[in-house]
Amino acid sequence: MNTNHITSLHIRSVPVLDQDEALDFYTSHLGFEVRDDIDLGFMRWLTVGVPGQDTSILLELVGGPQHDETTAAQVRELVTKGALGGLFLTSSDVHATYAALRDAGVEITQEPVTQPYGTDFGIRDPFGNQIRINQFNDASPGEVQEAYEGTTAP
Amino acid sequence: MGRPLSAQEDTNRRMLRARDEMDRRYAEPLDVPTLAAIAHLSASQFGRVFKEVYGETPHRYLQRRRVERAMTLLRQTDRPVTDVAWDVGFASLGTFSRTFSNVVGCSPTEFRARHAPVAVPSCFIAAWTRPRERAGPAGAAGTAFSEKQEGVDAD
Fold first, then answer.
1. What is the nearest CA distance from A81 to chain B, expressed in angstroms?
2. What is the fold of A86-154?
């Protein structure tokens, strides 16, 4: 039973090195919509999201109020090395999404490949963040686990 | 607005593109000049800069990537070990077996046997096959390989 009253994942932060460039990439190439673009004085609160879906992404400028200069430099290093996390998106037509992004010159890290859970491919945003885009098949979680482990969960 | 990339950040970004190329084409013969061109570096600079950024040589990174893929194939398929070696880009079974043992700590055949499908709960299997602390020469994996300047994947 959920006793802490948390109801959803509302916003997830993605570190970016230029918010204008990030806004262009996530809206023009990925089709996200702007949710908030607010000048808070100490930072620009810029969130985007997939139309029709509640969860937003905070395009968070590295070096904002939460980072001292040394930490910001370290985070920038990690972002540009591709060492920080990423996003996992879904598509209703993964091959069409792949073709559109490829033709637009987006960095492709992996062409579409069939996986136990569907078909997915990988891209990077302009700063090095990994994004994977997947079209799920009809496999159940148990079937996916069985494909990887050769056995099913108890 | 953000500030322009520093020289090091720009280098990181270019090396990431080269590493992504290795990830994308891990099963193909890869050569240093091709990867260096992606990173806008000379072939002689590439290995050194890659190691500065990622802490290991491109050769070692490619080996680990191939072994990782081989682990999946050994678990999910019943393809002969020799075929798996070829599938992931190794040109000889001997090099594959040696590299696999160096990275994973056991031979491909032993790995497959440990991860064969068993009709018991997966949590039990996980506990049973949990990696143990490795000691001795096998633990000093990265030092056993020298970078080859022409072929990143040269065996």
1. 5
2. 2,3-Dihydroxybiphenyl 1,2-Dioxygenase; domain 1 (3.10.180)
Cα three-residue angle B109-B99-B129, rounded to 5 degrees: 45
Across the interface, of B2, B53, B117, the residue whose CB is closest to A18 is B2
B64-130 has which fold?
Arc Repressor Mutant, subunit A (1.10.10)
> What would the pLDDT profile of B69-117 be if each residue is shown by its tens digit?
999 999 888 999 999 999 999 999 999 999 999 999 999 999 999 887 6
Between A35-44, A58-67, A90-99, the lowest mean confidence (pLDDT) is in: A58-67
Strand order in the sheet with A33-39: A11-16, A56-61, A44-49, A33-39
Report pTM.
0.80
Domain ranges of chain A: 1-84, 86-154
**Residue B112 phi, psi (nearest 5):** -60, -40
Chain A residues near residue B115 by CB distance under 8 angstroms:
150
> With an 8 Å Cβ cutoff, are A110 and B23 in contact?
yes
B19 touches chain A (CB under 8 A): yes
